[in-house]
Design goal:
Number of strands: 9
Strand order of the largest sheet: 2-1-4-7-6
Distance between the termini: 17 Å
Oligomer: single chain
Helix content: 10-25%
Order of helices and strands: HEEHEEEEEEE
Shape: globular
């Protein structure tokens, strides 16, 4: 089942890449993540995908907020003990930003990897992928923060949270 989810997520990522993305340029000396660099795809418990497309001039932070608002309206993803699921988030570490993920004690991260873009263009973003396994029954949480690790945490940091219900 996990392979099917990963395959479906990859097809959606490729489809989005073929459609292209746009973003508006921002002023200021510090480059913030743009919608061009980050699009999120989530797979829900019914094995259907929620595709989040570039929203025109919305910043990456606003796009993630919209994604999180949508996720918050859904029930937790059901995951059986020993089963795995993948979470894939766009990431561009060349900007200094990266996802820092953590899980509650009933989940285990069994894969934490960055997949560079197929075109290998300098400065292009890729995808960060985590494979999560359920290890204890109950409500569990995967959370990630998109920030520069050398900077102090800030209330403006971009966060992503996914709830799971792990069952026997």
């Amino acid at each position: 089942m996990s392979r099917y989810r990963f395959f479906l997520a990859m097809l959606l990522v490729i489809g989005i890449a073929l459609c292209g993305c746009t973003s508006s340029s921002s002023s200021g000396s510090e480059k913030k993540p743009t919608s061009e660099e980050n699009i999120k795809i989530a797979i829900n418990e019914n094995n259907t995908s929620t595709e989040i497309k570039d929203s025109g001039n919305l910043s990456f932070a606003d796009q993630i907020k919209n994604i999180q608002d949508s996720i918050d309206k859904q029930p937790p993803i059901n995951l059986k003990i020993g089963s795995t699921t993948d979470i894939i988030l766009k990431e561009n570490p060349t900007t200094g930003y990266s996802w820092n993920a953590s899980v509650t004690s009933g989940l285990e991260i069994v894969n934490d990897s960055f997949n560079p873009p197929a075109n290998r263009l300098m400065g292009a973003g890729g995808e960060h992928q985590w494979t999560i396994r359920g290890t204890a029954v109950g409500n569990q949480i995967f959370s990630a923060v998109y920030r520069r690790p050398w900077e102090a945490p800030s209330p403006d940091d971009i966060t992503y949270v996914q709830h799971f219900l792990v069952t026997a």
